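To close the chapter, one final illustration. This time we ask the reader to focus less on the individual chains and more on the assembly as a whole: which components sit near each other, and how the overall shape emerges from the parts.
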Amino acid sequence: MAEIHGVKFVLCLSFSLLLNLYFLWTSTRSVKELSWSKGAAVEAEVVASVSCSGHGRAFLDGVLVDGKPMCECNSCYVGADCSHFLDGCIADADSGDPLFLEPFWMKNAASSAVVVAGWHRMSYSFRDSHTRTSNELENHIRLLHAVIGNAVTEGRYIVIGVGSTQLLSAAVHALSPNGSASPAKLYKAQTKYFNSEDSKWQGDTSLWENSTSLSKNTTDTSATFVEFVTSPNNPDGKLMKAVLDGSSVKTIYDHAYYWPHFTAIEAPADENVMIFTLSKVTGHAGSRFGWAVVKDKDVYERIAQYINLNILVATHDTQLRALKLLSVALKGGGKELFGFGYKAMRHRWKKLSRSLSKSSRFSLQNLEPMYCTYFEEVTGPSPAYAWLKCEREEDKDCHEVLKSAGIIGREGSVFGAESRYVRLSLLKGQDDFDWLLERIDALVSQEYGSRSI
Amino acid sequence: MAEIHGVKFVLCLSFSLLLNLYFLWTSTRSVKELSWSKGAAVEAEVVASVSCSGHGRAFLDGVLVDGKPMCECNSCYVGADCSHFLDGCIADADSGDPLFLEPFWMKNAASSAVVVAGWHRMSYSFRDSHTRTSNELENHIRLLHAVIGNAVTEGRYIVIGVGSTQLLSAAVHALSPNGSASPAKLYKAQTKYFNSEDSKWQGDTSLWENSTSLSKNTTDTSATFVEFVTSPNNPDGKLMKAVLDGSSVKTIYDHAYYWPHFTAIEAPADENVMIFTLSKVTGHAGSRFGWAVVKDKDVYERIAQYINLNILVATHDTQLRALKLLSVALKGGGKELFGFGYKAMRHRWKKLSRSLSKSSRFSLQNLEPMYCTYFEEVTGPSPAYAWLKCEREEDKDCHEVLKSAGIIGREGSVFGAESRYVRLSLLKGQDDFDWLLERIDALVSQEYGSRSI
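The assembled structure is written out below.
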């Protein structure tokens, strides 16, 4: 018996020791695996775990209260934990802040996090190649276009910049006559941002189409014309083609919204100069990262030179993060991100359409279902913005009508349209959309008298 | 005995269980501590552990070979692990790539790493404040200037931008007459980068000082003059003051190098518009992060507006990283980073000076020891660049003389000087400096005939 107990004792001890050793080994190994990065990882997870009632978020670089980053609340929410809704709050649907994708990145936290070492890419250049763009990043961009089928990139040049704003300036510069006495004439609302010797803003394209000889297939060599084509269009989400034509006309395609979140993909775009931005693909507006896909080598070099003089190089920190985000975007052939994005935007459009279908005072742009080569099926509209029209004769200032109902949109005049149009952003966070919809519902119900308020 | 064994057995089991439970608990806790961030942390440490023989580095966004980022070698080194020195390699001392600080960040890996979550600051703005700059970051910038004593920031505005390149453009824009028929006239080499309606490059300041009425204390109201003052000066490291004066003269101080690494701090600078860049403080050139300290509210707002139109906002990814880097820079009252930086630059200057002291063919700029208010002692020169002069009558093209000895510098003409001057960068990585010094030693030894080669 003693013998048996002794054997059991030894066995128990050995087993326990082995188990202890195993745990010791695994914890040591985990410490070994994580040395210098561990503190930063813990710090990030602590901040991420701060509870803001689902109506806000704490960030690593947020304002500290008692050494802890405080909650930054969504619009209309206040309080230390963002739990209090502000009565009478205005529904702000002005900006195109793409926070509808934030939940996707919360869900994909593990695959989308990046650790930036203190010594990461301190140099201006990448050491070996003396280039200033990550090859891997460029490959990911090409791969994404191939997978989604929204742009041809084979044999094209890619240049990256700080968001599409800067790339648009760079492209105008690249397409303008160098040192010419008559600068390029520009067409499209963005032009108010430019003020350089190279370019002069000439107004909305449609005005020029009628009043000059620059309609399709005519040639005017006295000046260079640069036309911006935003497709899908901002504000109304329709796919667009160039209006002007001729040897003196250069066209810049802003394809910021040409992704399955917002539109059916018709075919790979194959234009001379096409501009994209991370902001509307992954939703990272704050990273300020865009790229141009360019056919012509000279134009590519002039764009790259402009960016080089303007900022030297796109920040390496963002290049690293963009690489990681695009690698997640590519997962499952893109179906995870773009499936999520399309579903979210489609749902919002349906809800808003249903709400406004009861109204005769307000109408929305008409968007038809289309066959999407990416999803391989007919998809219903899922635009980034609603292009609302006030139909009543007396509602000339639609922005004002909405404002008095507690809704802020962007005036139609910003897009060269009548003031009876207003753009409403549908791609902000869920709280913003929910509150916008409530205000719209309330406004529509007024049409049927006080009983339905 | 059986009883005793039984007690022992229970005790052993309990103890073992407790020990097991303890390890189980600690590993669970550590898993709990690190959930979503762990993969990214492991990934970063694996890449950091790639050995490149001390002559290169692997980066997270490097080109992959067999799924692993490959070594990116320092200049003159090649091979899969960068262990092979390229015979006859040219010593490239052209660029101001501040890699002399890389070892500091390797040493401070744990405190300087940052984990960027996939959902980190996707929005254009910071939620609560609707600002686009982190308050904590701005506070860190102010604190750093206060600790180092190199600039007054109390009651001043701070605006951040993409490196100092963009801020210089923005400041010129802000100081130029708005829509005026006669644009601002600019003085300093940087002006070749600008090409806008607002400004025209007029040449080197010293030419104007003599040839126009714009010497000190005269007033010319017919035009606006913008003078750039780089202090410490690039290339020669001397502290500079404005040359032009008068009510029509605006001055922009580029204080990129006004840090204890490169110069004794005389007193807190207190100019109207002062520009700084992270590149020359922490060495992170690739992050493209700069800031302007501005006295006048109107000028501040025009700079901010220019940056807003140009890029909308400085990338949030870099803001987060800059915050972390500056918090490390502030450790120990800045003594760790600036102590390291000064020591490194001082050592290089001494070595180069000693080497060239044997030469009558080449000379260096003369820099005197000065009292540094930051280190609270007299410090010897530690400039970012050597401003080398070829003294021999026949060595008119100094750049060519050096080139044929296997050294690439930057031509004096780039800085408006004679071609018998060349700028040599002293702030690159250690391999670059070591090889430069060897080439210089070899060149100097030629003066004494073949015996000493």
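The mean pLDDT of chain A is 85. Chain A touches chain B through 110 residues (CB under 8 Å). With these observations in hand, you are ready for the problems at the end of the chapter.
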